Amino acid sequence: MPVQYTSIMDEHLTVRSSAGIFDISHMGEVLVSGDRAADFLNTLFTNDIRKLEVGFGQYTLMCNLDGGVVDDLYAYRLEPSVYLLIINASRIDPDIDWLSKQLSSFGQGGQVQLTNVSDSMGAVAIQGPRVVDFIDQCFSGASESAEDAHVCQSSQSPGIKRPSQMVKNQIGQFDFRGTQVWVSRTGYTGEDGFEVVCDGRDIEAFWECVLQHGKPHGLKPAGLGARDTLRTEVCYPLYGHELNDQITPIEAGVGFFVALDKGEFNGRSRMASQKQGGTARKLIAFKLTEKGAPPRPGYPVWSVGPNPELIGEVCSGTQSPSLGIGIGMAFVATAHAKSQTAIQIEARGRKSAAIVVPKPIYRKPS
Amino acid sequence: MGNVPTELKYAKSHEWVKVDGGYATVGITDHAQHELTDIVFVELPTVGRVVKAGEACAVVESVKTASDIYTPVSGEIVKVNSDTTANPAVVNTDPYTAGWLVQIKLSDPSELGALMDAASYSVQIGAA
Lengths: 366, 128
Description:
The complex is a heterodimer of chains A (366) and B (128). By secondary structure, chain A is of the alpha+beta class. Chain A has helices at residues 8-17, 37-44, 92-104, 203-214, 224-233, 268-277, and strands at residues 20-23, 28-33, 56-63, 69-79, 82-87, 113-116, 121-127, 171-176, 179-184, 193-199, 220-221, 281-288, 300-303, 310-319, 326-333, 342-347, 350-357.
């Protein structure tokens, strides 16, 4: 996927107002199956996978024994004992290593199979408020009389015939020109939308098909640049920026996805003590309150006052295309993490005034 | 791709220079603004600063990145175009006129000989 097709600004605003399609084939896909797959994954992931019904997915995190994040991912329950993990491209090798090592010490290794299908699978994300108006057409290769052609094959969701009938986080299998593709109602932009995972050989034809049906609704291809600015506006973490193997989900503000009450899992004790006793640093969202250089990763964050203190560092930042000002996320000392705290962001030796704001930074006008 | 006016001189790093007596006006080329796409922030040097050819003297930022702008000539900054800091998009829409960045009093006019003419710059950007 290129950084941009036309311009980040144009692609970003197109996704917010109508629709964009992203090539996300770089993402990794891992299948985990077997009678004890859920038990195994529940010792690795922070969220409670037993709460997943067949045909649904959940955001979750995989942590090391100290609670540092190995990766953040989506886990889908495709069949009672089959899970699909969508993982970050840059983390495929470390994830597979970690999963394999953990499986060998799980004991009943023979009852759980791990299959890395990242190389053979392709994926696209179709995001924006207009997507629901045309997504079904991408699967109706046949006329209406041949409705079976786009019936969801997932027997566990018998009522679902079209992608638009799915709710958030639901996943189903639909027919695209004779092959079965997975479609989920998920995304990374803060907009309604769908993600499609299929055999890499079919992805180009599917991309063209979506473009054809979506263009009348304003759909445009969107690149990595817009993907980054869209997720930053809604404060979704990106591995390597807000998350790494030294940062716990509690510090990164994604404690909502940590089910401390589900029993033992990797990193649980550290996360439990952090939840109880607090953390030295916290991930905050901020907005510049004056015209200043767009914040960038690595920029120092300062307190205000006659003797400003260095209190943290920007981990994601950009000019917000939706708001027209500099925004970002930063890890700062907890004393400065409260909403409405005045802070300063330093760019090239010059400090700009900013304020800590609640997440998400951008909210859809309702 | 890109408009390359024949009356200007060009640097490899995609700045243009317009010479008027002992003064040079500097901006970025149409090709450069097109590559950067939406310019959202411009940082200019202070008037009176003395710069050397090849030195970073301004910063132009798109949504994604900050790019240093290098002065192709040496001298003293005598004027800056504050319209570009108030309205950065003018560098996209009008890179050769309203979107100029700095004016420099030349300290070594012989440096101009090292710059490219429009034909050579067009070759560099694949527009010839």
